[in-house]
Amino acid sequence: MVTLLILYLVLILTVMASGSFIFFIRSDDQRVLKLLLAFSGAFLIGISFLKLVPEVFSSPARYIGLFVMLGFLIQLVLELITEGAEHGHRHEHSEGEKVSPFLLLTGLCIHSFLEGMPIVGAFTTGIQHTLVIGIVIHNIPISLTLMSLFLHYGLSKRRALFFLVIFALMTPLGSILSNVIHLLSSASIGVYFNYIMAVVIGIFLHVSTSILFETEENHRYNLQKFVTVCFGILVAFGLSLI
């Protein structure tokens, strides 16, 4: 229980700290955000293939591949709402076009809630920590993008921060729901874990490939992105050995 509380605190504080950082950087300087996205995309796909996928497929479960595909499709549907904010896209609409920050927040909250569901206290600590590290790194550019869009849509700083708190709570709430299900259910947590983790793997694969396959005309940035991606995969490989 203490370990879970620490993980929840780390998840919440990371979102709040990275989202608040938007007040200290230039809104038109996207270079740092793009490199953060490249690293997070490489790290996500790295831990997915090197740690999460082997764990899920190590024990037999029927139709587990379909659940990976389900996660991929869920993320595809969510992006109809969020317009790609999960991988750093900032679609700044014209003044005459009505945009709902509540819709954006709803889509990202569902995304974050699902990511938190595999964090179950009864399961392997190493997998928990790997997943949390992946979510933390993934949430840094998301939080920056989310706050940037909230401010662009005309929300006050106080209201934008309030919405950021709601987003920050979603991953812990997803984990809490899974732990409650575990306490109330007599079924093996391993079966439940494999299916929900498969869904999250599908989400990770969609987000990470969307980041990694984005093109950029600036050749210098492409080299920086390549080096950053290699570093992200190397970090994921190192973590998989622990």
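The record above closes out task 2.4. Task 2.5 opens with a second protein, given below.
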Amino acid sequence: MDLRRLRVGEWIAAASGVVLVVSLFLPWYQVKVPPHGSTALGIGGTLDLSAWEVFSVVDVLLFALGVLAVALLVVTAAQPTAAVGVASDALLTILAAVVAVITTIRVANVPGALEIPDHLGVDTGRAPFTWIGLAAVFGVLIGAVIAMRDERLSGNGEPTDSTGLPVSAPPEIEVIPSPPRGLADG
């Protein structure tokens, strides 16, 4: 495993993936019951609900995206060629775009489990980790796009071999002369 192969995009995607996975276990939504109201939730107080408790399929997609974002970092660092990392970047970009759209829709609409009739006096809302989780999803997407766009193996003046490892001098390129004119016509 060589961490020198990693580009900024993989680091952004992996860090966002870790934040996303952690945020899934923290409160995404809050249900507030007024002190004078009595409901099935109890008399007064606040009920915090994590993404695992509110979502049915979206939580699994979010968890998979976070794990795959971290896996992208490991795969890119562990593989002897850059091709596997570049292909993984492209696949993660597609998945992250789909999950970002789905998550944005779910965050915009309060999930069905929280739709409590207004006459009960219960206030439902999004907790801060809703926005942190959504930002992490877009962080994975942005990191994957940056990594996918950055297919170079080295920076200017920093030559590397075909695996992405630094070398002291750029590889020699063999120059083959073109065939003489007379032979090509015949």
